[in-house]
# Entry
Amino acid sequence: MASGKNNYTILPKNWWEHCSGVMRFTPKVDGETITDIIKVLDDVKEWGIDAVELFAPYHGGIEYGGLDVIDYYSVDPSIGTMEDFYTLVKECHQRGLAIIIFVNLGYCAMEFPAFLKACNDVKAGIDSPESHWFLWSDTGEEEFDRSLIPYFMNDADGHWHYSEKAGKYYWVKWHGSKGNVYLPQFNYGDPFWRAECKRVVKFWMDTNIDGMIIDAVNWYMNCNWQINNETITNIIRSYGNKYIQPEGAGGFCDDPVQWITKGKYNSVQDYGLSIWWTGYDAVDSAIKSRNPRGIEYNLRRYRDRVVQAGGVTYQGPSWLNWRQETKLTNAQKLLVAAVYATVGELFACSSRLMKLDLPSEWKTRLRNLLRILQAYPALQAAGGRKRVPTNDDNKYYAFLRTSKDMRQKVLVIMNFQQEEQTVKVRLGERKRLMDVFTGERVHSKPDLEIDVEPYGYKIFAMEK
# Structure
């Protein structure tokens, strides 16, 4: 990424299309502070990652890593101050790193001051702006318009909860990690809340961040495409060159393309490949079955359609993201990472990447893989992708990646078997190839034959 004046970074236009990957920090979960994160930014660069994601930086409670907001306009005191946050943004930009934040705009903590005031006002019959931020019922039996399902209020288990303080019921979707709290949902049908939401979005965008991931948008109450655009995406877009993703969108039988074309986001998570809350993972399944055909099917129906609509997809290996136990071997883990790094995803990983207990050889290979993703635009999220036939597509996976500007092509070959295999790839014409890891040149015939190690991969740049 190009450097600008005063040692700051001018990110390329649509920087997320040229970004190798995003590393997420969850400081309230990991017991870190913003200062701790600043200290490892050079390590982030060393790993070949181009962007940092900070999870729920505002003052929050203890649910879902602090997503349950208490004060939108201050940094959580357990991780630092607003001054620390400004320093983090500056330090990221000085290193050429983009920085985005993950925020919840749909619900609050039960001790959220505006909710407590709203309860008092409702009890006293005071018609305050805060009382309109939430949904109330005298009976707990009212039903909502669900005509926009599955795009908004895709709600199977939301319900009314009685508040002694308010003397009424309020609407709840989320119950905390232990299921013992009743977090109030905001009412997007109310102009007072929409005005407040705009102020929140502007407050954080004014810190010079490079975008936002918005938590669980498809459960926002009384929201629709117009309200979503006016309250969230149009505000962020007005700052120019900003990444916007609706977390959860595309994961509940809703067409991900609609979030790009109607919602005006420019990225979605690739729930065609992996859905963390269900345990579904097409790549892990391909590894365990030794058959990669399902990966191609899911890329075509999800990722490829999003890219054709002008967006990108964001996803990474489950074993690098969700702290899930896995029985994969190190070789299999590396192949999983290679899939996500080459098929056309904005590679997403947790900061635990830098603390992995892996043999040094495997760490080096993973780091080299991410650096190759960083160095070759053809492998990045906005590039084209086309499957190339092999001598057995039930065992091997080969595809050609093309950069968005059509100037670069890269061939990827993967072996999903536990033994070394000779893979034949039908290129259809003679090609001059260069192994991106070793620099070795290969002059191929129309059918390329290449030996690939167990659960291994080869990546070749096509030379003109």
About this structure: The chain is about 30% helix and 25% strand. The longest helix spans residues 293-308.
